[in-house]
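Researcher: Good morning. I'm working through a list of sequences from a screen, and I'd like to move beyond sequence-only analysis. For each chain I'm collecting a predicted structure so we can compare shapes side by side. This is the next one on the list. No need for commentary yet; just the structure.
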Amino acid sequence: MEYIAFLAVIILIVGVIMLTGIMEERKSKEMLREKLKKQYGQYSEKKYADGRMESIVSAVQYGGNAKDKFVIDDITWNDLEMDRLFKAIDYTRSAAGEEALYRWLRMPVFDEEVLNRREKHFRFFEEHEKDRLDYMLFMGDVGRTGKYSVYDYLDYLDALKENNCLLTKLIDVSLIISLILGLAVNAYFFIPFAVMLAYHCLSYTKQKKEIEPYLTTFSYFIRILDSVKNFDGMSKEFKEEFKAELEGIKKDKAEFASFKRLSFLAMDNNIGTVSTELGRLILAYLNLIFHLDLIKLYSMLHVVKEKKAVLIDLLLGMGEMEACISVVYARAAFDEYTAPCFVEKKENGRNLYEAEDLFHPLIEQPVKNSLCQRRGMLLTGSNASGKSTFLKAVAINALLAQTIHTVCAKKYRSNYFRIYSSMALRDSLLQGESYFIVEIKSLKRIFDGVEEGGVPVLCTIDEVLRGTNTAERIGASTELLKELARKGALCFAATHDLELTTLLEGELDNYHFEEMVEGTDIAFPYLLTKGGAKGRNAIKLLKAFGFDEELVEKAEKLAGGF
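Model: Good morning. Structure tokens for this chain:
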């Protein structure tokens, strides 16, 4: 009777512990759900592992025939500070979602059907908060992969040689046979048993060390596969909206049945099948003796290598669904947004970029500007007047329009564009190249893009050829910008050379940004104004910022002589 009472107490204690754990987990989920709710309408403050932004670039090549698609190059991406924008709108909680969003932003789409399908999914998540939060929560359980891209891990597996473990399996069988014979027939059979056991234990450590770095990869894949079951708990509306995607994901998962089967043998610290410390200890000794984990790991490796394309397809499907939620959160954070309207053909032989109240998404309390360009634009104005920010706003919004179908404006209408920039260049000291050489190379890639034909080019150029003397800069800039216009590129260029406003009047529309200087006070309205800048105000700015009046007067006198 005492034993029964003791057992009942033990069962009760275990039950209380399990119930407490379940309640704590549920409470934690609810707190997280509330946190995610509060994030809606705010820019993301997500933290990234050191080196993550360098490694995430590898995700671009896995975008489905990525080699055949246009990809925003590194110069343009860095000019537009797209890493900063990506971080601000990345609300994903899994590596697959994070990389899907990044891949979207680097690969503009020229297909209205693709963009409309994305828009439909965005609208669904905007209207269904519960599904949005449920999906974010279970993708959070999948988690991230730290510094490296999940696709990097896939590539690392290519370097790991497959092993059918035939010798291991033969030794396992021999160990069992010699043990049985030693117990049932003659103790001498324990000698070969001991020899094989010693060999197996010693070789285990070496083999385990070789494959251990890849456990993170397998662990992540298992979490992805496990998460598919969560779709069963999603709403009927969700299942209808993402019917095609879910069918593809479940079909892909089915091909990994053998990968998942008995995976706890190799991944006991990640899989709940072996739930107690005693169970893990027993399994560790069995693995040491019989190499069960190594046999399973090599079996899993074979499946991954054989079905790599299927796994990538599954990751893309789940990641892009989560990326949709990020776009919804980003739209709520933007001061204003609109879905773009695209013009398939040129209007009167010209490309179009039309926007009402356009602004840069990361500027607080932005000044909004409207424009309607059927040919390029030449911007003049002093430093800090807003030229560079406007150029970035033009290019960024063209990119957002063709990736996340979202523009920071009241209205937006344009052709599809391949987007290039040449703005924030630096001397390439490590390669021994001057600023001017870097500029020339940067401009040449834009001309090469134009020469390729096909989808028209939109380019933003800040201070054309600033790395050379005035006379040559004006001459070369004039001909370069004329040639881009003649070849059909829609070019937005900024310059301090007012001579270009006259030389390019027949090719580009003149606009400028003004500054207001009154005594020692200076103000920048950041409003786009038609026509070229009226004069040179750099010397006035010296006075506004407190330089000696005599110095300013001498500078004005010298400038007047040129």
